[in-house]
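dumping the sequnces here before i forget
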Amino acid sequence: MRTFVTNCMQLSSMYSRGQKAFGRSRRGLMACGLTCALLTLLAGCGKPEFTHREEFSKLEPYAQEYIHEVLNQHFGTPTEMVVWERLPLKKHLSTGTVTKVAETELTLELSEPHQEITPGTEILWNSGPLKGKPSGWIRSWDHDTHIATLETKLKEMPEEGTQVIVGPGQVLVRGRHLYAVHCQHCHGVSGDGNGPTAEYLNPLPRDYRQGIFKFTLTQAQERASRVDLARTIEDGIPGTYMPSFKLLTPDESESIIEYVLWLAMRGETEYQLVRFLTEDYSKASVLDRVKSGVEKKKAGEEDYETYASIREEFITAVNDPEDMPMELDSIVELIVSRWTTAQEPEAVVAPQENRVAYDARSIAHGRQLYMSNDLNCVACHGDAGYGDGPQTYSITKDLETGKENEQPGLYDAWGKPVQPRNLHTGIYRGGRRPIDLYARVHAGIKGTPMPAFGAKLKDQDIWDIVNFIYSVPFETEQAGSGMQKAQEPAASEEEVAVK
Amino acid sequence: MKWFWCVFFAFWPIVAVAVCAIAPSVGWWLPGEAASPLGRRIDDLFYLILVITAITFIGTQMGLAYVLFTGARRTDPDVTEKTWFSHGSHELEVIWSTVPALVLLFIALYQLNVWAEYRVKDAFPKKDMEAVLTRLRQVRTDRDSVALAEVTARQFEWRIRYPGFDAQGNLLPLMQDPQPTDLYAVNDLHLPANAPVMINLKTQDVQHSFFLPELRVKQDAVPGLVIPIWFEAEQQRSYALLCAELCGWGHYKMKAQFVAESEAGFLNYLRTLHSAQNYDGVHQKIEDEE
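..and the predicted 3d for all of it:
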């Protein structure tokens, strides 16, 4: 991936040099053709930039500028990332202390486990007299003796016991490079699920920017855990275009996960800020406010709003540490705490009782529950499990606002139509282990109309439903057949007459 | 100028031969030594054909150079030598029709055994394959498939279905349709080494190609067909498994591994899959409490 990035850079510098030469000396067709060829090569090879949400453009320009600035300040751009210490991510290769200093060799005690330390890694001094002074750079790292040989002898060597950060932000940088190679063409630079190949896909790639991931083993109200993301990367999502990336090393997979989480946190910060500001500072609501201001002015009131006053009010709010900064702080705090708690062991769906035996009794009870009015699985998945229940052609309500959707069918949190799973295919997107199906029933599928039944059902009941789901692809008889004997057709009049 | 063109056209075949000659030493050659007996025989065929085509190539290029240079010489102003008009020569026509025909016939007959063993199901080493299944203690009848896995290509990964175990822990045969006991994996094909083993190849969407470069195995996966392939890895290690048919924008992503291991190792692998696939989330809790 490094070559990809450097190629682009070389190309762009070649391009600018070529242009100058072209302007100066008019080398005719040859240079023109070359420039054209380079331009073609460069198409789509520009510097990657984060894009904003659609609703962002509906805000007043000053509100847009504020959000843009906030994101730039705390997250930076894809090529110049800002590592915000506040985010609960594994950002650095490792942290530790210097235990021994000799010539250019430092013995380090590092936090374990840590990612591979490669030549050229930075050592940032985090305490002692060297704090804030230029960093050291590792020439070679001995994994067994924990001795780092530095590129050059430092003017001032660190004291023993100096706290160090090895490879500051390097995990995210590695993640970004890998993301650019493997993920970006579908999931997009900003994680909006709108990369160049996304338009060919159905279902669409995940948009991370609400912080919602569908297939997790965490409780219904929790975010995804790192384990969930790792499993998705390793096994892929059958039935969708997400392939398995089994051959990635654990380090590579970890780096990608941290970068994806970083994108999710960045995206959610933007999402929440836009949502918060839309109420008062969207172009539409400002227009309303100004209109009512004009009314008030006409009515002779002194206290009325104009464009200028609303803008003034916004700027005051931004500069008042008790106002917008506080609001931003609570938004970020919520995001941080959600992602932190999702990593706790308590967040994981944990059945108390073992899976019950896969037998006729359990399957029959599972089917009964599936058909019951209480759970109403059939409303979406259909009475025969083909994913064709009445909800798929009814007007449903929006998951978030609760308003009725304009078009019939089911919609997810991203506003896209979704199909309830056809249980006959034997394809299980979130994994086929019993615990995966248990978690789907217990905690639902995040961001979709699939509700969590954990509070309603006992473990045994959920296991019965799981067993029933397992049995559906192997059903040989049509649903309903064999339930009751077909009645003999009533004898016709002629037959009666013959008798 | 005419001598320039003579040298120019004579130069490139020499470059081509020279590049071919140094190719193996700079790593522009086959993907390593063939890692299977059949692979070696395929390599032998490859080299045989390479020798024949090399002789043909050098011969025809020398003929071309000869014609170029003599033809160019004859256009010199003071040369009276006449051109030899060969068109319609019966002897020549007979020679260059029969010689290639004989060569092709020889190749066609000579490769029959390898082709049949590689491709024709009746010529597969069925006995050896069944011996492996017996050693794995598979519960089987003669009518059951000898395939040990079903590999399904799809954009852009390899999904693998193995037969599972019965209630007594014995390996079951692979059935044509999925069974509740089946075991599933993705991008990670495990099979026993040092014996011929067979897989069934399918595709879920477009055409793909199952390619084990080190074993010299390449077979297209065609929609609607179940294609049996067999191979025998000689070393217990992992090999590259690639897609060799441009199958879409993510073609380059279809990289997997094929791990050849001992028969016990293979059974162990299936058992690990079995317990992972039946994990109900309760086990771990008990461990944590301990």
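The interface with chain B takes residues 182, 185, 197, 200, 217, 235-236, 238, 241, 243-244, 246-247, 345, 349-355, 358, 426, 432-435, 438-439, 463, 470-471, 473-474 of chain A (CB under 8 Å).
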